[in-house]
Every structure is written in C-alpha cells, then in structure tokens.
Amino acid sequence: MDSGDTHDMEQAKSLSRSAFVMGYTGAVGKELVNELNKTKTFKKVILIGRRVVPLDVGPEFEQRVIDFEKLDEHKDAFKDLDAGFCCLGSYRAKVGVEGFLRTDRDYVLMSAQIAKDQGCDHFSIVSTMGSNKDSYFLYPKIKGEVEDNLSKMNFDRLSIYRPGFLITDHREEKRTLEKIVKVLMTPIIYFGPTLMSIPVETVAKAMVNNVVKPFAIKEIYENKAIHQMAKEC
C-alpha cells in the first residue's frame, strides 16, 4: 500500500460515512462483508437481505430483513446511507427466467432508486463481463439494461464492475454447469489469470479499495482493471 492509498483509506474513515450491502449472502457479497469488516471503512453498514445469517463481524454491522416484493414498505432500511453495494444475483438454472429477471433486474433497479431517493450518493454494482443491452443473449442483455438504467438515475457516483468467471469454492447451492466451466477454463485461469476469470475475494477488495478513491461520476471496471484495483491497497 503506497502513501496515496493509505491517505485515501484514512480520509474515508475520518468522514464517518455509512453504507449498505445487498446480496451479502452470495459469493461476492460474503467476501465484501469480510473486507469491509477488516478495513473498517464505514462507521455503519446495513446488510439488506431476505433473512438473518450468522456473521462474525463488528458492531457497526446490522442485518435488516426485507421483502423485496414490498420494497416500498422498507424504505427506512436505505435511509441516510451514503454508499451502496449491490451484489444481488440469481442462478438462472434454479429460479428460471422470470426469477432471474425479477432478482437481477427489478429488485436491483427498484432498490437503487429507493436508495437514491433516501440519500445514497455512491452506488456500486457487480455486473458481468460482456454486458450489453443490445445483446441477443438474455444474461448480458439484462445486465446491460440494468447498467443503462442505473446511469439514468444520476447518482453522484456510479461504479460498475464487470468481472469475468467468478472463482469460488463457497457456493450455497450446487452449480453443475459452473463446475464444468471451471474445469474447462483451468488452463486459461492458470496462464492468463486476469483475462476471463477472477476470485470473488479480488472483486471484494477492488470494490472497497475503490470506494475510498477520489470522486468520479461514472466508472466501469472490466475484469483486468478489477484485478489491478484489488492490488492498490
């Protein structure tokens, strides 16, 4: 960590800002909570989800259970929080197309708008490599549409992360196709680790390192840039 990175982190801590995390029980979300707990970047962190889960974190963390189908009834969960991290995502093979659209598009955009209205000025989201609202394929198309709609919400700062294949051994559900892809990609992961894949821990570190950086209106980080950002602190 160089002196500039140290200054950014210490300055961020001195501002006593607050944040929320959505999708904190998922692969990236879990690592993000671990990283936030380790760095103590925020004075308060609200973890927004469907259920309470066991966590070994500091007193600045609070779990808030909400019904995403009734988001308007849970606006207070987002009230006066400076920054938001969205790691929401579903496994399409498990929830189907409708479930995927509801979670990865509708819940994300509705939550983001409520957060913006409640005072959030910096919104960070985990999207995907190749996201494109004009794609013929559903997954990158929806991710691209979400990015486009978030851009139109006019957050003071919007950070979009487009990681490649996420490497993790801590999925709650079995993902057979994901395991097959991981095996097929082993040579690429070994010889070109920043090309198409990234450990979830690296994504989390990059998000925390970046949130303390000087102001930018909109920024998009592709897979290789996320790897680099994670090394900066």
From TrEMBL:
Superkingdom classification of source: Eukaryota
Cited Pfam families: NAD_binding_10
The UniProt entry's coiled-coil ranges are none
Q: Name one GO molecular function term.
A: catalytic activity
Q: Name one GO biological process term.
A: import into nucleus
One Gene Ontology term, aspect cellular component:
cytoplasm
Residue ranges occupied by any NAD(P)-binding domain in the UniProt entry: 25-209
**Subunit structure, interactors included:** Monomer. Forms homodimers during oxidative stress. Interacts (via N-terminus) with elongation factor EEF1A1 (via middle-region); the interaction is direct and competes with EEF1A1 binding to guanyl-nucleotide exchange factor EEF1B2, thereby inhibiting GDP for GTP exchange and reactivation of EEF1A1. Interacts with nuclear transport receptors XPO4, IPO5/RANBP5, IPO7, IPO9 and KPNB1 as well as GCN1L1/GCN1 and LRPPRC probably through their HEAT repeats. Binds NCOA5/CIA.
This chain's protein is named Protein HTATIP2
Q: What organism is recorded for this protein?
A: Arion vulgaris
